[in-house]
Amino acid sequence: MKKTMMTLAAVLCCALAFTACQKDNTPGGDTPSGNDPDTQIAKVVVEYSFQTTRAMLQYFDFNLEYLDATNGSKVSEKIVSADFKVEYTAVKLPLEMGYNLTTTLKAGKTLDDVKAVETMDYILPSPSAWIYFYNKDGKLIGEGGVRVTVSGPVPASGTKVAQRFEEGHFSKSYLQSVDANGNGTHGEWK
């Protein structure tokens, strides 16, 4: 009985520790609510970013369509460098943020060209859309969205890269509506 109680206590402690470490990536998920001026949203910043490698840019065209967070219009960018980032600071809530990444083979390149590469620096194409909430004193009070952090490229065979491309892992979309309180709901890119 004593052993069972100790096991149950250990399981509960692990469950509580796991729950406490999870982060809500929904905009507004970390935003305090209430009438306290220190927790009221005074400034909103939306950031879009994308990373790839020069090796992948030799074989693929990445077209990133994203929403201008100031007016909701669609902006289309052909990614031509390994690091892309755009930030909107004159943002008002409510808003929509999101992106649609379309990846195609470069003109004149084939999947056989990709497969022939013995090893290339590889990063799975994954754009990020992130929103920050600040109070009147400029203190970060909440953030969320979808963010991919990359520690660096990994070596991969051209065959593996071609396989990931054929499976559709190089094209993706994301859409989030954020209300006046900073709470977000997911939607479908249109």
Report on this model:
The chain is of the alpha+beta class and about 190 residues long. The chain has one domain. It is about 20% helix and about 35% strand. The chain has helices at about 1-20, 55, 110-115, 160-165; strands at about 45-50, 60-65, 75-80, 85-90, 95-105, 120, 130-135, 140-145, 155, 170-180, 185. The strands form 3 sheets. A 5-stranded antiparallel beta sheet has the order 3-2-5-10-11, with no helix packed on it. A hairpin with a 5-residue loop joins β10 and β11 (about 185). The longest helix is centred in the N-terminal third of the chain and has 20 residues, at about 1-20. Mean pLDDT is about 85; it is low at about 1-35.
Task: Record keyword descriptors for this entry.
alpha+beta; disordered N terminus; 190 residues; 11 strands; 4 helices; four-stranded antiparallel sheet; five-stranded antiparallel sheet; single chain
Mean pLDDT reading: 84
Helix content: 10-25%
Total number of strands: 11
Extract low-pLDDT stretches: 1-33
Class from helix and strand fractions: alpha+beta
Helix-strand string: HEHEEEEHEEEEHEE
Strand content: 35-45%
Q: How many H/I helices?
A: 4
Head-to-tail CA distance between termini: 58 Å
Radius of gyration: 21 Å
The main sheet comes to: 5 strands, antiparallel
Write down the domain tally.
1
**Shape, principal axes of CA atoms:** elongated
What's the arrangement of strands in the largest beta sheet? 3-2-5-10-11
